[in-house]
Each structure stands twice: as structure tokens, then as C-alpha cells.
Design a protein that fits this description.
The chain has 260 residues and is of the alpha/beta class. It is 32% helix and 25% strand. The chain is globular, with a radius of gyration of 18 Å.
């Protein structure tokens, strides 16, 4: 995928979140059920010191609120990153009761280098990877996050399984239809398998770019990037299988076993 197509697809999503931020915030108030299954692993990683969390694509901060509700928040240091100033303002309004809170506005496609350096005990990447155009950029983002983990730290990511459900497949917008009225048409020859347009809303819907990655493909990608898979499971949505979770450690930051 060439750079022009990457930027054009990202512009679709920036416009989408600009148009729908208020409605999107209202629809994202409750924690995902799948997060509860993370807690035992998080508890295992916690030590007497501060626990550093990086929430990439944090939106309105609801994962931070979930952690604050389920753990001892005074021991947590939380950093949230999102490209929407509107959603970050909602995250700030939560007044998350952590030892420290940092909220950063950064576009993961245009300015990945603005991600905070860390290191972090836990990095969350929920509902984000499908918005990153191009395999090369998805690979670069995941590797960059792996390099920000503490030894033994956890990267937890989700892949939205929208292609598996007819209620989403039936709404996919053909690229040719989009290009007929688009100010910036997409070169379909540059698209990768799994690149789609999905509407939001019923009347005059806003449109978002989403990439579908199968479970086998993400497992292979993580392996290629030196991640070791700790756990994987399906959760969320009406049938409890809307998202596929992957919990992994980065091989370059694995803990060295103590001698003795």
C-alpha cells in the first residue's frame, strides 16, 4: 500500500471520528466483558511499585475507569493516547484516581513516534488495529509497542471479527460506490485483502475504514514480530465472540530466570 492511500484511508477515519465523536462517546460507556478476564494476569504482574499502563486508542478513558474500579488505583500510573481531542476531553472529565495520569493526543498513523516511551507493565490496544492502514504500519505499530514493555510486561490487543457476522458483512460499502462521490477517491489497486468501508448510523451514515485480520493471520504476525502468546479468547458483543483477544509478551523484553 502506497503512502497516498495510507493517508487517504486515515483521513476517512479522522473525519468519521470528528463527525460521530459525541454519539460514539455515548455508545462507549460500559466496559467490555472480555476485560474481566485480564484481571488475574494483571494481578500477577503487579509488584509493590507503581504499575504503568499505556492505553493506546483510549477514547473516553473507559478502560482506565474499569481498572480504577477493579484494582487499587493509587498504585497505577495511566497513560492514554488517542487522536480525538473530544474523546480525550471526556477522559479528562473522568478524573481517574490514579497515582499519575497522562493523556496524549497523537495520530497513530501519521505520528507514531509521538507515543510515550515507557516502559509499561501493560499496554492495551483495544479496537484500534483494524483502523491502521497497511500491513507494514500494523507491523511497525505492534513492534513499537513491544519495545515499550517492561521485562515480562503484557501487550493485550483485540481484533474485531466483523467479517464473521452477516449484520456487518451486509452493510459493507463497495469501494467503487464510495469513489463515485468521494472528494479523495481511493486507488482500489492499492488496497489489501480485508480492507473495507463500514457505515455508522442509519440515515446518511458516516463511513469508517476497517481492516479485517483473521485469527490465524494475527497469530502469525505476532510470532513474526517476536511476541509469545500467553492467552487468546473470544468475548464481547451479542454472542460473546465479537472480539478476539490476544495477550502476549515481547521476546526482547522477557524476564531472565533467576539463578539459585
Amino acid at each position: 500500500m502506497d503512502e497516498r492511500t495510507v493517508h487517504s484511508l486515515n483521513a476517512i477515519n479522522r473525519s468519521f471520528y470528528g463527525e460521530t465523536a459525541d454519539d460514539f462517546d455515548a455508545s462507549r460507556s460500559e466496559p467490555w466483558p472480555g476485560w474481566t478476564r485480564l484481571l488475574p494476569l494483571v494481578e500477577q504482574r503487579r509488584t509493590t511499585g507503581a504499575f504503568q499502563v499505556l492505553d493506546v486508542g483510549c477514547g473516553n478513558g473507559r478502560f482506565g475507569a474499569f481498572l480504577a474500579d477493579r484494582l487499587v488505583p493509587g498504585e497505577l500510573r495511566y497513560t492514554g493516547v488517542d487522536s480525538s481531542e473530544f474523546l480525550l476531553a471526556r477522559a479528562r472529565a473522568r478524573a481517574l484516581p490514579f497515582a499519575a495520569v497522562e493523556l496524549v493526543c497523537a495520530d497513530l498513523v501519521e505520528a507514531r513516534e509521538r507515543l510515550p516511551a515507557g516502559p509499561y507493565s501493560l499496554i492495551a490496544l483495544f479496537g484500534v488495529l483494524h483502523h491502521i492502514p497497511g500491513l507494514a504500519r500494523r507491523r511497525a505499530l505492534l513492534r513499537s509497542l513491544g519495545e515499550r514493555l517492561t521485562p515480562g510486561g503484557l501487550l493485550v490487543l483485540t481484533c474485531w471479527q466483523f467479517e464473521a457476522f452477516s449484520r456487518f458483512r451486509d452493510k459493507l460499502i463497495p469501494w467503487q460506490d464510495y469513489n463515485r462521490t468521494a472528494r479523495d477517491p481511493i486507488d482500489v489497486e492499492q488496497l489489501e485483502p480485508g480492507d473495507h468501508l463500514l457505515p455508522w448510523g442509519d440515515s446518511d451514515p458516516a463511513v469508517r475504514y476497517c481492516h479485517f485480520t483473521s485469527e490465524d493471520d494475527i497469530r502469525q504476525l505476532l510470532s513474526d514480530l517476536s511476541f509469545d502468546l500467553v492467552s487468546s479468547y473470544a468475548a464481547d458483543g451479542r454472542e460473546g465472540n465479537l472480539n478476539r483477544y490476544f495477550i502476549c509478551r515481547f521476546r526482547n523484553t522477557q524476564e531472565v530466570p533467576k539463578k539459585g
